Prior knowledge:
mainly alpha, two-stranded antiparallel sheet, 3 helices
Amino acid sequence: MSGKDRIEIFPSRMAQTIMKARLKGAQTGRNLLKKKSDALTLRFRQILKKIIETKMLMGEVMREAAFSLAEAKFTAGDFSTTVIQNVNKAQVKIRAKKDNVAGVTLPVFEHYHEGTDSYELTGLARGGEQLAKLKRNYAKAVELLVELASLQSSFPGLNVPLLISSQSWMKESERSSTG
């Protein structure tokens, strides 16, 4: 133990009481940092696991959506001009919220539907079933994209405080073990 780690103190009952209070405060602070680090680590791992699962599912959903687009174009012909002309307002919108994890605020995005479906009668003459399937598949793709965006934007916001609290906790752990 080096001399600079020692605290200059006069040996008395009052000094002993003060040092006991400082020790208790340091132990409480270390325990709080450990709890925060554990909570952040748990959430970090959950987000990482969910990102991996969502990305795997995203590949399948996008492949299915692209295939259903090809089916709909084959059956109903070129309907892109009809869709482009009828677009005036977005049906699916995104709402941003904040989530608090151990004092760290994370952005969370959620999608919601606003308004009615203006394309209900598109494909009524031919290819209506394929167009309905196309809508369902792309709606699921948008839902997964929003979820993935929410998870990936939370990831760096959680990574930095996790590293800081883990380093602080480790430094406190080293101090208490040497002293």
